[in-house]
Fold this sequence. Notes:
The structure holds 2 protein chains of 2 kinds. Chain A is an alpha/beta fold. Chain A has a single domain, classed as Glycosidases (TIM Barrel). The longest helix of chain A has 26 residues. Chain B is mainly α. Among the domains of chain B are: 194 residues, Serine Threonine Protein Phosphatase 5, Tetratricopeptide repeat, CATH 1.25.40; 89 residues, Immunoglobulins (Immunoglobulin-like, Sandwich). Helices cover 66% and strands 9% of the residues of chain B. Chain B has 21 helices and 6 strands. In chain B, strands 1-2-4 form a 3-stranded antiparallel β-sheet, with no helix packed on it. At the A-B interface, helix 9 and helix 10 of A face helix 5 of B.
Amino acid sequence: MKRFFYFTLTCIFLFTATALAAKPQPKVYIKKLKNSRYQLIVDGKPYIVKGVCYNPIPIGQNHEYDWWSDPNKPWLVDGKLMQEMGVNTIRLYQGHEDPQEVKQVIRDLYQNYGIRTILGHWLGFWEYPCPLYGDKPFQEKVKKEILEMVNLYKDEPGILLWSLGNENNYSFSGQVNSWSSDEIDKEPDPATQKFMRAKIYYSFINALAGEIHKIDPNHPVALGNGELIGLEVAKQFAPDVDLISCIIYRGKTFGNLFNSLKATFDKPILIVEFGADAYDAYLKKEDQNMQAFFLESQWRQIYENLAENKEGPGNCLGGAMFEWTDEWWKHNENDAEAWKAHDTESNWSNGSYYFDIKAPKNMNMNEEWFGIVALSEEIADGLNKRIPRKAYYVIREFWKKPDLGKDKKRKVNKK
Amino acid sequence: MRQGRRKIRLFIVQCSLFCVFLFGVACAQDSAKVDTLKQQIMQAKSKEDSYAAFEEIADLYFDANKYNEFVSFLDSLGKEKKELEPLADYFTALCRYYQLKYLEEVQNWDEYFAQGNTYRDQIVASAQKVLDATAPGDAPHLYARLILWKFHKDQQDAFSDEALENLMRAAAEYAQGTADIMPVKAAADELSAYAEKGKSRELYKIYVNRVLSSDIRAEDLKNTAADFYEQGNSELAQLVYDAYLERISKDCPKGKLIPILTDIARKFSSPEAKAGDPLYAEKIFQRIEEAGGKETFEQELIYLRAKNLEKAKLYAQAKDAYIGLTRRFTDSPHADEANFKTGIIYTYILRDAKNGKDYFEKLARQEAVTPQVISALYQLGLLKQWEADNSGAGDYYQRLIDKAKGGYQQIVALAQERLKEINAAKPLDYNLQSLLDAGLKEENAGLDMTKLDLKSSPPVPKKNKEVEITSVAYTAESGCTQVQIQYLWSGDLGAAQPASTQPSFSTRYDEPGTYIVGLIAVSPSGIIDRGLAIIDVQ
Lengths: 415, 538
């Protein structure tokens, strides 16, 4: 009798243990460590996102150009250069209408170069006349697109995570892509209006995150956000997102970003867009050093805030620099002639990029000059020849030896 | 001809040789000075003596931007005399800190990228060695904390808060000893330069308390405060003046105290002073009032206080002071300016056009013609026109033109433009209409002038000299998408006609007087705010 009892107990134990062991870990997930430190785990190993934003528009074309079906496959040339630099991730702002072509890009980059893809979605932010986030049919339409995207690509081994939205939160103040609803229109106080927009938007994001988790437990869902604006509302209404993917342009450093996020909305952060342009708007000449200087400093701070660095807040998962190649169409997207010229007129001002802030009217940010590699008008293999800028080499060296100081505690393992 | 050329060549060669000689002499002098200072360091009997010599040597190397050479020198020094190691380590950290700044400034990127991490390592490691080798009562201990904080602060990294806490703790510990207090002031100066005002004030207080605990005479305290004021250190000057006033106020008779207070108030209310602070000046004005009552204020002092309040943007109080001035001194030379500004503050800032008009009317009734009388007539016309009383408005504009008698051309031109509008049955200029709507309509009460800042430079311009008028609109962040703001300028724009895309402009005024520039800033989501600049032209 006793023997039978022990036998049964052992069977139960073995069965439970086997069942537990058989439950697979998600392919990509976020591991929460002590003191709210976070690590991205991919295939069972910690993964630091060393990324670039990718949108390889050739000279003479604009954002409508379908590079996905380019027979010269620019991503193969770029992927090789990226791999040599140490890039392990690209960020795509949104997929393309032909899923086979999207799959091909994701597969080629992953299979040939081990580069994974963060796949994003604009959530209809640029739709005319405005993104109606308070409108149910609009929400349904966006939701359908998102779930289609997830279903189509979730089994691609190269997918790293999903990023919902970009700087959509800037619409809460009504200054960019202003949208409203009957309820918001009735509210006279602008601060309350702003809160109402944030609540509607983040609740929608939360619902999307929940739906994605149901169909794809293998990839985290990121909330794309400009700076940390609105995240105090997101904490309340979007608790189900796995991480925040932020767009940050603060010059040499990210300031108190990491601690601020911890205090506002304790989620891991991936800086999915940051960087510096390579044109000095004050001296009116290309300045690759200036770009490399800012990028090296930014990467140093990203590494200081990884979970591996015991002294920082440990909530950073990495970053994706803006951007891989220059885009010559950006200054004047309506003039096809202008797409053939590398425009040197600045589009916006940012005092944190201080070397050329004395440019006329403080307009120092040159949108067409953000590439880690420049484009040449010379054609090689059917593509504009890629010319790596100084930042390419400086960041490559930083990634090889990311020492942050002699103190051993401050050293970060190469991953 | 040939001989002439030869002479020129000879002259150039001689000049070059002389320059080389001078350079050689300078190098030899520096080298000799370094040797002398090195000897001083080696023979120094106290840490203070060697520190002074270290500082002098550091200046020589830093001035010549010879950072690597200085680090080699410090290395050898530390090896020669073990006791010097902490100071050598501190100066190594300081040297690498300045070197990184220098490389960035001159954009020596090759060295920056190749050696940057090594230098950063050295800053942290050398400072840490100083901390390990010294006690909290040693000056290098505090200096090491200071350099570490500056390093982390510049990098805005995760360690800067902790480094600041460590620095504050180190300063407090250091001050408990009997050593020289100047390192605490040095730390406070740096904190102040980095706009850490709360923290710098804490350390300045420690410094001032130590100064007070010495046998310093009240007069010397006053002179010390004046010195800090002259140096542009407003924060420390205020603390020392407060301590000085505290020391003298118990025994000083009223008759003596009030001129002292007046002198301090004048200093801090001066519009062009580097260390000026209108809020501190008003605090002193209040002490004058407490000491001697309102009657103590003679008319120049009331005028000064009113202008100071205006500068501090305490408009309601400024208006009361101007009213007080005109009531007590009816024939004051400042009466017209005071009445006009009272009218402006009532109308445009306090949203009370009824009271504003009373003050403009007071001026309009005057026989004597002054710039403010002319401006008041224009304001009265404008308010009538805004109220759709074109006939009344036309009367005021015509009276203005008649009174001006060919003078005041800039304001006359504005009145003529308004008259043209009236005669052509056109609406009031859009920008002016917007300014008056924003300031006077009840539904715009939320536009409280806190989101738009207007400044004129210089603060008190002269007639026919350039004045720069700048605006800053505080809008919600919009990331890479630049929000297009429209700037609706109006009022006394002088010789300029700024476009709606211009956030700033330069102009000139052809007569002395009080000029008003209005601005409405508009974003795609509506009016951001309204702003007003009151410009006194001399």
